[in-house]
Design brief:
This protein has helices at 7-38, 47-60, 63-87, 99-121, 128-150, 163-174, 183-205, 212-236. It has 237 residues and is mainly alpha-helical. The protein has one domain (7-228): Growth Hormone, Chain: A (Up-down Bundle), CATH 1.20.1250.
Amino acid sequence: MTSVVPQAHLERDQRRRDALVILLAINSGAIDALGFLALGGAFTSVMTGNMVLLGLSAAHHDGSAAAHSGLAIVFFIVGCALGTRLAGTAQKGQPPWPRSVSRSFAVQLALTLVFAIGWWAKGSHPSGDFALGLLMINSLALGTQSTTVQRFGVSGLSTTYLTGTLTTMVQRLASGHRMRDVRHNALLLGGLVGGAALGGTLALHAAWLAPVLPLVCVGTVVLGGVLLMSESDREIS
């Protein structure tokens, strides 16, 4: 006999999932700020921006800039593939937080920890090839995050390519929807901007603390996902 989760509990779990996803948007903003300000001037999740930077580096014959933006793109792609392999793809009737999602976010947390250790090992001011290596690790982590979030199967839910989120929000508002209808989109965008502001501030004024924000965000998501799954399992049983 198959147990059915009450609709109220399902909606509660979806709200908790959405709150954890906002933390991932904050993480994206913080990591992107670190990449741009301290790891060679490239992004770790905004691949459209990196493609533009790659084109500009070709125009300026700047090999270093090309390497940073180009390798960030390559490792983001690898991360997307890794996240897909770990988390899988959305399935009909799946719970709000599939188990495979936690496995993928745990790998992302490990990558974030490797970045933090490397950052601190260089006195919070990495440079040269070492900084490029940290940029690649972060791009790998954000690529993993990007496709793992897609595992939820929620249309428009993203924590990295948020131009679409902004477009959808404006489109809905312009077509007569109320602000509460796009509340989560607005929170994702605010999380990204807020994460970038905080991550950039730490990178410029308290560099040794800069990796703490990503670690807290991803660590909280991993823990929150485990708790969410455990509670759902108890309700089903």
